[in-house]
Every structure is written in structure tokens, then in C-alpha cells.
Design a protein that fits this description.
CATH superfamily of the largest domain: SPOUT methyltransferase, trefoil knot domain
Strand order of the largest sheet: 14-13-10-16-15-17
Number of domains: 3
Strand content: 15-25%
Helix content: 25-40%
Largest sheet: 6 strands, parallel
Number of strands: 17
CATH topology of the largest domain: Alpha/beta knot
Structural class: alpha/beta
Bound molecules: adenine
Distance between the termini: 40 Å
Length: 431
């Protein structure tokens, strides 16, 4: 593998290319690196490589001519060289991008500085634009080193044992399991017993499960493209069981059109659609809060039809869903039931169609899912009353569809969208 690096700071690379496994790989000829000084391709006696941006504004832009000359020079030597421009506007770098770049025999990295390079070079002479992350560093030099290291590790012979590359975070599509070394006990903290048991099959299992757990908790989106066995799925399912999410459908106290506090009527469709949502996303319960006894009776009859009556025989999958529905007279009694089932009070998460107080992000809510039971409270009619908001721990941002204020969704649609935003990331099962 040959790497060319085009930079205005060639000295930047003197030590990184000498040390560690990268230094050794270069010494052993597994990798060749040629650092090119962009100024050597300048066309004036001052070796100018940059100029002011057309249209005005801060900073300087790398001129097209020296960049073009440098690219041509590299292509004369290695015509198939893949040209990569490092910039914060590029494709986000990850292990997959590293694997795809590793297929090339020769890569030229253009290290931008200041405001970047002239767009005509980027558009017509660059094959791929890569960013190492959503932040800005002083220039592409450090980024090129990141990319070079990640690619180099994939080149056979660079890392001693292929095994250790395969077990790294990301190579397997999962985050790596935690490692321990001597002593067995440090400040009272012990190494997990299994690692000193000498049972290699058990150690492998423990490591695989540790990888799955840390990936599920920190980067669940990676599981969508990971290679998972039936045993992995069973283990992940047992972990997801620990999330205790309840949907509360509140019919009192809610607001009417005039903003007055009312009790609303139960809609039978809500019972069906929200319970089916609940079963699909592994909710622990769909709790319907309704103080009016005649309304509760109607809902109870509907539920009985599907859980015990003809409906249960006619459509057993509906029975599975409707079983999640429980009716309560008050919000407090629904909260008390969660506390009884889980052994602790749920965090109350309010939802509303109009902006309210400060919001919790879905990402933060997902972290809390591992710690506490969650009750997502959906208001019927014109939404939750202030007294409910006052009782809640957090508020979810309203669902905004497009760039306007229209967001008049049914409670069933809103519930589905919110649950998918929170839990959809864990939907990585493939039949
Ligand atoms: N140059 C400056 N910031 C960068 C980034 N995040 N990725 C690649 N090149 C950069």
C-alpha cells in the first residue's frame, strides 16, 4: 500500500510515521508513505499556494494550480491513485470507509487548511471527501494520520495477530468487550471470575455477551448491520426485557378546545392501535386512565372480548396485544401499579403537540431507559393539563413534521411516532 500525503507542513509527519506499529510497517516495507510539500508545486518564486476567496470573506483558499500539478505528478507515478480530500464537509469516516479505502493500492491524501481548497479541484479531481468527525481541527494533517492508521491496521502483517484486529471494536460490527490484566484484585475491584476460570468456551461467551451488552447500551444502531446469531438475539432480547416502558393514555385531566379541564371519552381504536404498538415495541403496559365508570366499563368489555371472548379465539395475535391494556380511575393509581410491578416509581414523561417547558432529548431518554421504568403520558382531546405537566419529570419535544406549525396528529399516530423515535433503534431483529 502506498500513501501520498500532500501538505504545506511536511514536518508534521516526522514522528508519527516513525513510531509504533505504523513506523514498523513502513520499516518492513508493508506500507510506503511519501510526503509531498504543496509549496514545491507552486508556480511563483514566493511559492504561493493560497489566495483570498472570490466574493470576499475571512481566510485563504488553496489555489487550484499547485494542487493540480501535485495530483498530476502522483498520477504519473501511480495512475490508479485514489485521491482523498480531508475536510469537515466529507463523508464521515468509520471502519467501513477504512475497509473500502484499504482496497486501493495507492491513495493520495490532500490535507486542507484555512478555508479549504478551490472547489474546482474538489469537484473534478478528488475521488472521495472524508471527514474524521463532526468537529473542526486546524487542518487535514491529523485527519490523514487517523485514516492512514485505520487503513494500515487492515493490511495483512501490520498488526501481529489478525485475531486481534478481528476482535477490535467495529471490525465485528460491535464494540469491543472490556479487558483486564494483573493483579486479580485492585483496590478491592476484582476481575470477573470467568476470565480466570481457564474455561475458554465460557470466556468466549462472556466476551461476546459483554460486546453485545456494551453495543446495545451505547451504540444500538451498530446492531442493525452486525452479524448476529440466534444465541446473540436471545441474549439481546433478555437485555431489552430490562427496559420497562409504559404508555399512559390519559382521559382526565385533559383540556377541551376552550382550555377547560375535562374528562374525554375512550376511543376503541386507541385500545387496539396503541396495544398493538405496545406489543410490537415490547412495552410493559398500555395503561388507560379514565375516571368515568361507564366509559371504563365499555373499554373493559371491548378488552374482554379480545382477551377472553370470541375475539381471543378469532384473532390470538390481537389477544397478545390487548392483554397489555389495563384501566385505571386516576393517574396516581396507574403510577402506583407501575411501582408495584417494577418495585420503583416510573419517570413520568409528558408529551404535547404545542411547545411547553424545556425538553429532554430522545438520546437522553434512551439512557434513562436502562435505569428506571418510564411512563410516556399521552393526552387525549386537546392535550394534558398544567397540573399533569407539573407532576412530570421530563417533557418530550412535540413532533414537528415539516417546517411549519401543523402537527395535528391523532393520539395513536403521535404515540407510534414517539415510541419509534425512542425504541425503534432497538428494532434490529431480522426474520
Ligand atoms: N480538517 C479540519 N477538520 C477536519 C475533520 N473533522 N475531518 C477531516 N479534515 C478536517
Amino acid at each position: 500500500m502506498k500513501f501520498y500525503i500532500l501538505t504545506i507542513f511536511p514536518e508534521y509527519f516526522s514522528s508519527p510515521l516513525k513510531v509504533g506499529l505504523l513506523g514498523k510497517a513502513i520499516e518492513r516495507g508493508l506500507i510506503e508513505v511519501e510526503v509531498l510539500n504543496l509549496r514545491d508545486f507552486a508556480q511563483d518564486k514566493h511559492r504561493t499556494v493560497d489566495d483570498e476567496p472570490f466574493g470576499g470573506g475571512e481566510g485563504m483558499v488553496f489555489k487550484p494550480e499547485p494542487l493540480y500539478q501535485a495530483i498530476q505528478k502522483v498520477k504519473e507515478k501511480d495512475p490508479d491513485t485514489h485521491v482523498v480530500y480531508l475536510s469537515p464537509q466529507g463523508k464521515l469516516f468509520n471502519q467501513k470507509v477504512a475497509e473500502s479505502l484499504a482496497k486501493h493500492k495507492s491513495i493520495l491524501f490532500i490535507c486542507g487548511r484555512y478555508e479549504g481548497i478551490d472547489e474546482r479541484i474538489r469537484a473534478h479531481f478528488v475521488d472521495e471527501e472524508v471527514s474524521i468527525g463532526d468537529y473542526v481541527v486546524f487542518g487535514g494533517e491529523v485527519a490523514s494520520l487517523v485514516v492512514i492508521e485505520a487503513i494500515s491496521r487492515l493490511i495483512p502483517g501490520v498488526v501481529g495477530r489478525k485475531d486481534s484486529v478481528d476482535k477490535e471494536s467495529f471490525t465485528s460490527g460491535l464494540l469491543k468487550y472490556p479487558c483486564y490484566t494483573r493483579p486479580r484484585e485492585f483496590l478491592g475491584y476484582k476481575v470477573p471470575e470467568v476470565l480466570i476460570s481457564g474455561d475458554h468456551a465460557e470466556i468466549e461467551r462472556f466476551r461476546r455477551q459483554s460486546s453485545l451488552k456494551i453495543t446495545l447500551e451505547r451504540r444500538p444502531e451498530l446492531l442493525h448491520s452486525a452479524n448476529l446469531s440466534q444465541e446473540d438475539y436471545a441474549f439481546l432480547k433478555s437485555l431489552l426485557e430490562k427496559q420497562r416502558v409504559y404508555l399512559f393514555l390519559l382521559h382526565y385531566p385533559v383540556k377541551n378546545k376552550e382550555g377547560e379541564t375535562i374528562a374525554s371519552a375512550i376511543t376503541s381504536l386507541d385500545l387496539h392501535d396503541l396495544s398493538r404498538l405496545g406489543r410490537t415495541y415490547g412495552l410493559k403496559g398500555v395503561f388507560v386512565i379514565q375516571p368515568l365508570s361507564d366509559q371504563r366499563e365499555i373499554a373493559e368489555r371491548i378488552c374482554r372480548h379480545w382477551t377472553e371472548g370470541f375475539g381471543a379465539k378469532y384473532n390470538p395475535t390481537r389477544k397478545e396485544a390487548i392483554k397489555l391494556v389495563k384501566l385505571f380511575e386516576t393517574l396516581d393509581s396507574a403510577i402506583a401499579e407501575v411501582e408495584r410491578e417494577c418495585g420503583e416509581k416510573p419517570l413520568l414523561i409528558a408529551t404535547d403537540a404545542s411547545p411547553k417547558r424545556s425538553y429532554i432529548t430522545v438520546e437522553r431518554l434512551r439512557e434513562l431507559l436502562w435505569e428506571k421504568p418510564i411512563a410516556l403520558i399521552l393526552g387525549t382531546a386537546w392535550g394534558l393539563c398544567d397540573e399533569v405537566f407539573d407532576q412530570c419529570d421530563y417533557f418530550l419535544e412535540p413532533i414537528w413534521g415539516r417546517l411549519d406549525a401543523y402537527n395535528h396528529l391523532s393520539v395513536r399516530s403521535a404515540g407510534s411516532i414517539l415510541i419509534d423515535r425512542i425504541l425503534g433503534i432497538y428494532s434490529f431483529w431480522k426474520k
